[in-house]
Amino acid sequence: MVGQKEDHLVSLYRESFPDFARMVRRMSGTLEQAKDSFHDALLIFMEKEKAGKLHLHSSPKAYLIGIAKICWLRTLNNDPHLPLPEGFEAPQPEEEADKEEREKSLLESLQKSGKKCLELLKAFYYDHCSMPDIATRFGFKGGRSATVQKHKCLEKVRQTIKTSEVYAR
């Protein structure tokens, strides 16, 4: 059952993201903005689906792209009050203590992934190193190998988070 949900999300992602990225590019946005907004929208989609509050009046692709567009426009305009589609509820802000606990859990999960993974993810996400640079720094054969290793590290972190108490709440 879980595999089917993941396959559904992966195919929805593959089907929807290129169209959204093209739309953002046509509107003078960047690929990074498109990724950030689309990932936010995907999380909203998943949370609503998990909670049983996903009532679609269009295709999942159209809904996801619509939410991603709203997320992108919100960041672009720095306006958290842009209208949302009918029936859409924005996630409620987390309590400060709950947020701190989640951040602590994330840090622990990153640390559990291992020193090399932690350094690789830091190099990519915080130092903004290119994959060929990361490959050289960490002794991989090339940029593709570094990309695969980064993906494996992210999966380690995801699995650790999924088994944590904070995730279960």
Count of alpha and pi helical runs = 8
Strand content: under 5%
Total DSSP E strands:
0
Structural class: mainly alpha
Distance between the termini: 20 Å
Helix content: over 70%
Radius of gyration: 18 Å
Structural domains: how many: 2
The helix/strand order is HHHHHHHH
Q: Give the mean pLDDT.
A: 78
Protein name: Sigma-70 family RNA polymerase sigma factor
GO molecular function: DNA-binding transcription factor activity
How would you portray this structure in words?
There is one protein chain. By secondary structure, the chain is mostly helical. It folds into 2 domains: 76 residues, no CATH class; 68 residues, Arc Repressor Mutant, subunit A, CATH 1.10.10. Helices cover 73% and strands 0% of the residues. The protein contains 8 helices and no strands. The longest helix is centred in the first third of the chain and has 25 residues. About 5% of the residues have low confidence.
Main traits of this protein?
2 domains; globular; 8 helices; Arc Repressor Mutant, subunit A; 169 residues
List the helices and strands and how they pair.
Layout: H1 2-26, H2 31-50, H3 60-77, H4 96-112, H5 115-125, H6 131-138, H7 143-162, H8 165-168
In short:
With 169 residues, the protein is mostly helical. The protein contains eight helices and no strands.
